[in-house]
Write a structure and sequence with these properties.
The chain has eight helices and six strands. It is an alpha/beta fold. The chain has a four-stranded parallel β-sheet, sandwiched between helices. The chain has a two-stranded antiparallel ribbon with strand order 3-4. Strand 5, helix 8 and strand 6 form a beta-alpha-beta unit.
Amino acid sequence: MCEIRLSGDAIPFFCHRCWHTIQAIPAPTCPQCSLPFHSNIALQYSPQHRCSTCQTQRPAFSQAWTLYPYESPLKEAIKLFKYQGKISLADPLATLMITALGSLPDIDVIIPVPLHSTRLREREYNQSLLLAHRMSTYLDIPLNYSILRRIRETPPQTSLTKHARLQNLRRSFAVKTPQLLKGKSILLVDDVYTTGTTVNECAKVLRKAEAKHVYVVTLARMIHG
C-alpha cells in the first residue's frame, strides 16, 4: 500500500489509485479450475483443454472461477477483511467478484465455505458468508449458510504442504439436510483458492448429497510459479 493519507476515498483503507490497480486474471485459463496458462494460445485449438492437475486429478466441482491474483493490494485487503475484522471491505470485495465474474450457468442456491464453530467463535464472522450474502442479493439467488457444515476442526491450510492439505480436510465437511440439494446446481463461495483442496472437499460432499452441479467462485487465487 502506498501510505498516502486518505481523504474521501470510497474504498475503506485504500486510496482510489491503489484500488484500481487490481486487475482480474487474464485469459487464457483452465476451463475447469481457472489456473492461468502461460501461453496466450493455449486454448486456441482446443478450447476445453484442462491444466495438468485437472487432467490427473479431476476436481469434484464442475467449474471454478478464481477471479484475481492474490497479490498486493488485494492481498492486504483480504487480510484486513479476514483476520482483522475490517468487515466494511465486504462490499467492495464482493463488487470486485461480481464485476469480474460475468455470466453464470443456472444456479439454484449459493453456499459459502463454512468455518468450524470454534474458529467462528474466535473470528466472530465468516468472511466467505459475507461475500456470499452480497452475491446472493445482487444475483437474486437464494443463500443457504447452514446446510454445509465444517464438522472437524483442522489446522489452517496455509501452514501445510500440499500433501498435508489433502489429508487435513478429509471428512471435515458434512451436509445437514442432503435431500434439499438433490438435483440442485450450487455456487460455492470462498475468499482465496490456494490449491483448491478446501473447495474440492466441499464439492465432494455436496455431490454425494446428489447435487447436480457444484460451481465455485473465489475472490482471489494464489498463483505459484
